[in-house]
Amino acid sequence: MQNGFHSIIGDTTNKGWHYQLHDEPTLDFSAGRIWRMDLANYGGIGVQVLPQLTAQVGNTEIYAQTGGIVRFGQGLDSDFGPALIGPQLSGTDAYTPRAPSSGTYSAARWGASWRMTCWSRAMISAPAAGWG
Fold it and tell me: pLDDT per residue over 88-125, tens digit each?
């Protein structure tokens, strides 16, 4: 079935388990930072930018990532934006209630992220003869 699909899309055929990546231990070091920058406050409605940087070095992947979130609403100082699923910056799920006097917390968010991968174990193709 897999080779049939590969044939339809014009890709090479599956060579079997012998050509798969071998199991090996991995070790990665990752660091990230989010900054919270207040841009404006209009009648209790705040506007913030949350720029972020992340980097990882290891034998599974080497990359640098940057991104950010722009958000507006009330009680923005309560957190650092929405919780993220890894591999992303951690700590965004931390919440300290600092809601306005009305006791509400609300925000609208827009965000984007860009990653430059220098090397990734997942991007390695089938080994050449004599490799691995």
Answer: 545 555 556 665 555 555 677 778 888 888 888 777 65
Q: Is 126 exposed, middle or buried (0-12, 13-18, 19+ CB in 10 A)?
A: middle
Contacts of 99 by beta carbon, 8 Å cutoff, 6+ apart? 74, 75, 78, 105
∠ CA 36-28-65 to the nearest 5 degrees? 35
pTM of the model: 0.63
* CA atoms within 13 A of residue 69's CA, in its CB half-sphere: 18
* Measured distance CA(65)–CA(117) in Å, rounded: 8
The position carrying tokens 């079997």 is: 16
